[in-house]
Structures are given as structure tokens and as C-alpha cells.
Specification:
Elements: H1 2-44, H2 49-70, E1 74-79, E2 92-96, H3 102-130, H4 132-145, H5 151-165, H6 168-171, H7 174-187, H8 194-217, H9 225-259
Antiparallel strand pairs: 1-2
Helix pairs in contact: 1-8, 1-9, 2-3, 2-7, 3-4, 3-7, 3-8, 3-9, 4-5, 4-9, 5-9, 7-9
Length: 261
């Protein structure tokens, strides 16, 4: 009995280490998105979300679709941007999978969280092509922070980085302004819907079972604490880009809602 209790505690710890940072970032992005939408609604009405949705929603749905294909799910229907007043959806991806396949079951988790990863990667790609100098600074900060064990220091480093990037000189650059506008559109729709979270939870249970098996086989003992810390710091640093632009979107929505009351 004591063995089973210890096994469950270790497995729960491992699942938290594996996906905890992604889940926390997901809730932070959801927090900013929910309040940003309310502010935009207050200022311009419900259809104002279509402005950012025209770009942000297709990237959100394509992220689901690409990861679904990677995990060998069959896509039965996809709408990259189709606003519906009935259920307030802006787009969707319907897919099915073999319930007997562990690989496809685990895929549900990654399909669910795909918009966070896809949106962040999209912002990174835009940064690389439109403002390469800023991209280099961001990447340098990420690489320097990978071995950082103090999360507060990571936050402070990105705070200083933001001050260096968002300068008046940069706002005189047309490419920089285009990047900011596109990044805001993407970050406005980077968070997860209730359907996304529900789908991801299915895959999380399968991952939990796999970890139990790996623990029973003694395979996880080869994973060190330093490896776990480095992995989580890498994830947090990469996803910090999404948090920054979600926060910027929220601040803009706050200013706009106060002007157009």
C-alpha cells in the first residue's frame, strides 16, 4: 500500500513538472484574453473581436489541425474563421481518433494546448523576418535564462528586455509596427477555449498512466532535477513571448475602453 502511495505521489510530481508550466501559462493567457475581450466589447461592441480574429483565429485553428495530423488524428471538419452568434465560436477543428491507440490518446493533450505553442511560434517567426535585430535579443535572453533557477530573475530579465525593445525609435520602424499589430492579433486568440481544455484533459490522463508504467520500469530515475529545471525554464522563457504580447493587448484594450466608454 505504501509503495502505491509513493508511486502516485512521484507520478503526480512528474506530470506537474512535465506540463505544469504550460498549464500555468495557459491560465495567465486566458486571464488576459478574457479581460481584453470584455474591454473591446465595452468600447466597440461584440463584433470588434473579428478585427483580431481574422488573423488570430486561423492560426489558433491551424495549430490544432497540424498537431492533430502529427498525432495521426483524422480531421473530419475544419473552419479556420467562421464566427457564430449561436455559440460564440469563431472557428473550429473536428477530429476523431483510435481510442485504442495510446499515442493518439496522448495526442489529445498536445492538440488541446496547440494554440499556445502555435501562436508563440508564429510570433517568433514574424519577429525573425520583420525585426531580426529584436529577434536576436529575445533569443539571447532565452538562452541565457535556460540555466536560471530563480523565476523572479527570469521575469526581471524580460522586463528589462521589454524596455529595450519597445522604444520610440523602434516605433518609427514600419516593420516593427506591422509586427506589433500582427502579434496582438495572434496573442488575442492564443489562449485555450473550454473545449480545448476538455480535450487536453483526456490526453493528460493517458500521459499519467504512461508515467506510472515508466516509474514501475525504473526508467524515470535517469531524469535528473537539473534536467527538469532546464526543461521548465526553457518552456517558460519561450512562452514568455506570448505572455508579454497578451499583456500588451490587455493594456491597449484597457486604454481603449476608458476612452470609448
Amino acid at each position: 500500500m505504501e509503495f502505491l502511495k509513493e508511486l502516485l505521489i512521484i507520478t503526480i510530481f512528474e506530470i506537474v513538472c512535465l506540463v505544469g508550466s504550460i498549464v500555468v501559462v495557459g491560465f495567465i493567457l486566458g486571464f488576459f484574453r478574457e479581460r481584453s475581450i470584455k474591454n473591446f466589447y465595452k468600447a466597440f461592441g461584440r463584433k470588434s473581436i473579428y478585427i483580431t480574429g481574422f488573423i488570430g483565429v486561423p492560426i489558433h485553428e491551424l495549430s490544432h489541425a497540424i498537431v492533430a495530423i502529427i498525432f495521426r488524428h483524422e480531421i473530419t471538419e475544419i473552419k479556420l474563421f467562421k464566427p457564430s452568434s449561436e455559440d460564440n465560436t469563431l472557428g473550429y477543428v473536428k477530429h476523431r481518433y483510435n481510442t485504442k491507440s495510446i499515442y493518439q490518446q496522448i495526442g489529445n493533450f498536445f492538440i488541446g494546448i496547440a494554440p499556445i505553442l502555435g501562436g508563440t511560434i508564429s510570433i517568433g517567426i514574424l519577429m525573425y523576418f520583420l525585426i531580426p535585430s529584436v529577434y536576436n535579443v529575445f533569443m539571447s535572453t532565452i538562452l541565457n535564462n535556460i540555466n536560471q533557477v530563480n523565476l523572479i530573475n527570469v521575469v526581471l530579465s524580460f522586463k528589462e528586455l521589454t524596455k529595450l525593445v519597445f522604444t520610440l525609435d523602434n516605433f518609427k520602424n514600419v516593420e516593427f509596427i506591422i509586427f506589433i499589430l500582427l502579434a496582438i492579433c495572434i496573442s488575442s486568440h492564443i489562449s485555450l477555449s473550454k473545449a480545448d481544455i476538455k480535450g487536453a484533459s483526456k490526453g493528460l490522463f493517458s500521459m499519467f498512466l504512461i508515467l506510472i508504467i515508466l516509474n514501475l520500469l525504473g526508467i524515470t530515475k535517469y531524469v535528473s532535477i537539473n534536467m527538469i529545471i532546464s526543461y521548465n525554464m526553457l518552456i517558460i522563457n519561450i512562452l514568455f513571448i506570448a505572455i508579454i504580447f497578451s499583456f500588451i493587448t490587455y493594456m491597449i484594450s484597457l486604454i481603449i475602453s476608458s476612452i470609448f466608454k
